[in-house]
Amino acid sequence: MIKKAEEILKKIFGYNSFRPLQKEVIENILLLKDTLVIMPTGGGKSLTYQIPGLIFEGLTIVVSPLISLMKDQVEQLKELGVNSLFLNSSLSQLDYQYNIEQIKNGKVKLLYVAPETLLLEKTIGLLEKINISCITIDEAHCISEWGHDFRPVYREIATLKPKFPKAVFVALTATATPQVQDDIANNLKLKSSNRFIASFNRDNLFLQVVEKTFPLKQTLNFLEKHKNQSGIIYCFSRNQVDEIYEELDERGFSVKPYHAGLPDKTRMRNQEKFIKDDISIIVATVAFGMGINKPNVRFVIHYDLPKNIESYYQEIGRAGRDGLNADCLLLFGYGDIRKINYFIDQKEGREKLVAKQHLDKLVRYAESYSCRRIPLLTYFGEEYHQENCGTCDNCTRGKSDLIDITIEAQKFMSCVKRTGEIFGAMHIVDVLLGSKNQKVLDKRHDKLSTYGIGKEHHRDVWLSIANQLIVRSYLSKDLDYGSLKITEAGYDVLKGSEKVSGKLEVKTKFEKKSITTINYDKKLFGILRTARKNIADKSGLPPYAIFPDKTLIEMAAYYPQTEKDMLNTHGVGEAKFQKYGAKFILFISNYCKKFNIQSAPTVSYSKTKKTKKTASGNKKLRHEIIGEEIISGKSANEIMAEYKIKFDTLLEHLLKYSYTVAPVKTKGLDNYLKCSKEEKIKVLKLWEEYGIEMLRPIFDAMDEKVNYTDLKILRLKYLYQKGN
Predict the structure, then answer these.
(1) 252-286: b or e for each residue (b if 16 or more CB lie within 10 Å)?
(2) Spatial CA neighbour of 673 closest among 623, 717, 622, 625
(3) CA 404 to chain centre
């Protein structure tokens, strides 16, 4: 049956190969084994139940928590020619009854329902009379009391198992700690052997945390680097949303607000405008986003601190769902911690303790000077072994700019000691700066020897020093009150027996990653995007339901002008081609005639053929130069010395070259391999099975015996073999 699944993948969805774990999950479901799937946002969860749903004889029910999510999924499936419907409170009585008749007559393959609707006696009565092959529970973390979005009604879904004994049960979520995973599995009585956990790492997201100094100005500077791109700005409160919206609107940004205080119609209209690309930016509270499946969100800004890592991960997960690069910025300030702590203090007992722990883990993530992915993925029970992720502010900054900050550390900790180790960082900084505020004067801290000894640095620099001392365990911080205490390691610094390296500048620079490593014609992409918007508006659909940005980028890179080439483009299945193929071929053909451009061989992102130079005539990028140097016969050592790069960086450049220009012969890199000949042969075979997008599945399949550097070399070797 997996061959049938592969046919559907290509014919209906327009994809050439499965993404990591999709194939294994689909095989398990087709064998009628209850399945738990933990897969990150944008990892392709929907396909794992939609494809079996098209193969099964009976109906597949999909339990979804939000009306907007159901509507979006059904619209996209109908565009692909798949018979699907939803049942929820948004339907008129006439439409509801029509959908019921369609279900009774066996004309539906996938039915989307809210848990409340599914558990109604009349719904159960209807479904008991027809053949139910599969019951899928989306956003399954809602089942767990340990999850961040617990919904008691979700736990009742398990009561349906005896009523539908022939149906296979599938639970899916993107955010679940090991504890939440166990709770879901226990509730649905799922066997551990049927649990599939993909990597939580979204390597297309660039993660950065910046000290919150002048947040509006920082936001404007960031938006300047993301002109005309789609993005979300998350704020803590409704008032904050309104303020930011008004500021951006006055400056001419394409923006709307979203929060629970707005009238329902206004809120839904603003959401619709964002989904349909009528506006670029939505400023929102956390009430926004769970039902949004908009793939081309290019940035997420956290104007205020989220409550916990799960919320943060889910919110940044709304960016880059199309697999292209996106930027995630968190503005981090201690005032936000106090605000969240105020609300946590309203809780009691265990609930309060758990909230404090969650907040502390998020603060440690924000204060970290190591790779951002280490604390983020560790939280979800995943080990991260890569030395440098290359897609977070800490990894791209490097260690070369660390300086000796021992004197500053001693000044700060001396002040902590002299004030009695009962005050937080803000008060310590006030004393160091010689502040005349009432608290300092009332406590007579203006009489201390440390009063005013830190005037050489700005307040934000001292707060940054405090962060660094906490992260490195020279200071400990009380979770309830924020007061600082000197640790044993801190006393070593005070005595002068240990040096401290760190930074004295505040992190305010914003990084911006290009959307993709593929070279594409930006002008043609703009034309195709406008055409897509016009078609979508006439059809009453969001633009991504026609074609996602990833598809338009491939069209703008390879100029497909025949049915064969268009069908070989990512995301173009037969139904989509019949509806829109001729229109897009016409736009591309006219453009190519105007600029005298020949079609390049069309290639999916999962393939590797030589790309055509774009009409815009871009200069050679670093990975193109390095790829040509390797091909010309230069050794890896010579290139690393010439360009002052590490071996891992060299491999990253060669991977980009292999994807966007042509595969490179890796004979000269064999000397760097540490694995055995047998392991090498086995890894090369595993690429076929798992795909080349992620290293972790191969690392696990080899029982962690082949290191990540070897896997990167062997991936290049595999690409060269496939390319030839």
Answers:
(1) ebebbbbbeebeeeebeebbebbbbbbbbbbbbbb
(2) 717
(3) 35
What's 91's DSSP letter? Answer: S
Please answer whether residues 359 and 308 qualify as being in contact, where contact means their C-beta atoms are separated by less than 8 angstroms.
yes
Find the helix or strand (DSSP H, E) in which 314 lies.
helix 309-316
Distance CA 330, CA 193 (A): 38
pLDDT in tens, 70-89: 888 898 999 999 999 999 88
Domains of the chain in sequence order = 2-197 (3.40.50.300), 205-397 (3.40.50.300), 403-502 (1.10.10.10), 522-595 (1.10.150.80), 622-723 (1.10.10.1390)
Kindly report the pTM of this predicted structure.
0.69
Sheet containing 326-332, strands listed edge to edge, beginning at the edge strand earlier in sequence: 205-211, 326-332, 297-302, 230-234, 281-284, 255-258
pLDDT tens profile 508-543: 556 556 677 678 888 999 999 999 999 999 988 999
Chain centroid to Cα 532, Å, comes to: 25
Cβ-contact 78, 70 below 8 angstroms? no
Q: Which amino acid, 332?
A: F
- DSSP per residue, 15-60: -SSPPTTHHHHHHHHHTT--EEEE--TTS-HHHHHHHHHHHSSSEE
When pLDDT is cut at 50, 70 and 90, the band that residue 399 belongs to is low
pLDDT in tens, 626-679: 888 888 888 888 888 888 888 888 888 888 888 777 788 877 888 888 899 889
What's the angle, vertex CA 170, arms to CA 571 and CA 27, rounded to 5?
60
Task: Give me the sheet containing 168-173, strands edge to edge.
Answer: 84-87, 110-113, 59-63, 132-137, 168-173, 35-38, 195-197
Q: Which pLDDT value is given to residue 605?
A: 38
Nearest alpha carbon to residue 610 among 600, 619, 595? 600
pLDDT at 684 over 70: yes
